[in-house]
Design goal:
Keywords: Membrane, Transmembrane, Transmembrane helix. This protein has one domain. Helix 1 runs antiparallel to helix 2. Helix content is 88%, strand content 0%. The longest helix is centred in the first third of the chain and has 30 residues. By secondary structure, the chain is mainly alpha-helical.
């Protein structure tokens, strides 16, 4: 049950994160002339999201292996 809840919340968080990333890219595409610093923010956001995805899969595999 705990494993099911953890995997559900993991995928839910990843879906929300993906939708938020798409919203940021859409926002940057239309307002890039006014918000140049958003380029650096989106680059940092993408790196952070890759790290978070790696972290969630690492924890998820550890729970699956030892739980």
């Amino acid at each position: 049950m705990i494993f099911f809840l953890f995997s559900f919340f993991t995928w839910f968080f990843l879906a929300v994160w993906f939708i938020f990333s798409l919203f940021l890219v859409f926002f940057w595409f239309f307002f890039r002339f006014f918000f140049i610093f958003f380029t650096f923010a989106i680059f940092f956001f993408i790196v952070l999201s890759f790290f978070l995805i790696w972290f969630f899969f690492f924890v998820w595999s550890c729970i699956g292996r030892f739980g």
